[in-house]
Amino acid sequence: MDKQIGSLAEGKLADIVILDAESPGIISAAEQDPVSAIVMQASIRDTVPVIINGKVRKADGEFLPARIEKGISGLQKVAVEWKDRSHELLKNRKELQTKIEKLDCGKVGKAMIRIFHIDEKDLVDEI
Fold first, then answer.
1. Which is it for strands 55-59 and 62-63: parallel, antiparallel or unpaired?
2. Are 81 and 60 in the same domain?
3. Are 34 and 72 within one domain?
4. Among candidates 39, 37, 59, which has minimal Cα distance to 49?
5. In the 8-state DSSP scheme, what is residue 120?
6. Tens-place pLDDT, residues 88-121
């Protein structure tokens, strides 16, 4: 595995996000404290290229099609456009929303209190 990961070198897999330090969203903070600017201010709009497993996935502000490897069962396409993925994400969000609406919030709250060992005396109804 050391031959594939662990450093940036030709032939190794890498996930790299490069940020535009002159982007309006982070330029002022980046000059003073670049780490804070990245953590607190940077967003997807500030990324220039995005490289995943050594493959460019975003360039010039646009997501690139994801190439599908041969042999993945059930897939007819050679590449999947991000618009296709966004439609699938919206469908999944709607399905999740339906499930969320069926939840008993009282039971969920009690389960969270139990799981996280919260003392109910420390809870308040309103702020």
1. antiparallel
2. no
3. no
4. 59
5. G
6. 889 999 999 999 999 999 999 999 999 999 999 9
